[in-house]
Amino acid sequence: MNAAAGRLDSAGRWVAEQFDDAVQQREAATLGMWVFLATEILFFGVLFASYAVCRVLYPQGFAAASRHTDMLLGTLETAVLLVSSTAMALAVRALKLDARRAATALLAVTACLGLAFLVMHGFEYYREYREHLIPGIDFSQEGAAARAVELFFCLYYFITGFHSLHVLTGVVIIGVLALRVARGAFGPQRYTTLELTALYWHLVDIVWIFVYPAIYLVGRAG
Amino acid sequence: MSTPAAPHVTPVRRYLWVLGALLALLTLSALSALCRLGTFNLVINLGVSVAKTLLVMAVFMHETEARNLTRLASALGFVWLAMLIALTLLDFLTRVRVPKPW
After folding, report:
1. Which among A23, B7, B72, B91 could bridge A96 via Cys, Cβ 3.0 to 4.6 Å?
2. Which residues contact A183 (CB under 8 A, 6 or more apart)?
């Protein structure tokens, strides 16, 4: 028996005792999620700040390093994440309208697009491994800008690595939620869990929106 | 108060418009990166990223319908990050090599 104190409201929603009603409870949960997301923004923020400093110090080296990345694949990955964010938003909408099958399908689409992103990134990492672009392990760049290229790739692996970890976490959570929605665990009066997961997924998307130009689009002209 | 109000939903068409706008902005940033625009490459890339973020936050994350307190909390992370990066760059962008006076 769960010892948590609370009550069921007139719509059959569980309301913990510290809240007046389900609406207040959901707003508190949303606020708490945003506070967590602020810590996520700052987690990636220090990496972006390091990137900004290094790029100011070594503009030529960063342009040369960025040309080693796969712009086409990076653009495709961005598009995939943007579509997956839309699918996630539509999944929450479907659940609010009590369209459980549609919500399950849209969640599955979101998770699959997340997986597709990870697979494409895996191919990128493999190519960089083949081209000896792994600082400290297998790095064969030479010339005046070699140290700056090495710095760029250090930041590249930290930023994209942690981002991919976040995508993987999202894929697992969304996959589990898809199963739970299919089993009827959520509905038009019980969708907070899904909505908060959507906030997380959109933030992971936003992080990538800034990663994309920083990693793939430097020094492409000329 | 027996039947609670149905949850508010955004029309599908608005989500699809936003997706279209996001993909158009992505194309803009990719194509502009291939043109030699100097500093404007950076300006366009950052501008496009900020525009995309505002679209995602406003529509996908329902910021337009959120309470002011939630909006404030969602802006705070970005405000702290802006301070972090701005103050750090203020240092690095204003360093001058001063010759020894003796």
Report:
1. B7
2. none
Q: Does the distance separating the beta carbons of B84 and A213 come in below 8 Å?
A: no
A-facing residues of B in 34-93 (CB < 8 A) are 34-37, 41, 45-46, 48-49, 52-53, 56-57, 59-61, 66-67, 69-70, 73-74, 76-78, 80-81, 84-85, 88-89, 92-93
Give the model confidence (pLDDT) of B32-65 as tens digits. 999 999 899 999 999 999 999 999 999 999 998 8
**Phi-psi map region of B97: left, alpha, beta (phi>0 left; psi -120 to 50 alpha):** beta
C-alpha angle with apex A83: A154 to A125, nearest 5 degrees? 25
Amino acid at site A165: L
Cα A66 to Cα B9: distance, rounded to the nearest angstrom: 41
Buried b (16+ CB within 10 A) or exposed e, B28-63: ebbebbeeeeeeebbebbeebbebbbebbbebbbbb
pTM above 0.80, yes or no: yes
Q: How far apart are the C-alpha atoms of A88 and A75, rounded to whole Å? A: 20
Cross-chain residue pair B74–A37, CB shorter than 8 Å = yes
Contact B26 A79 (CB under 8 A): yes
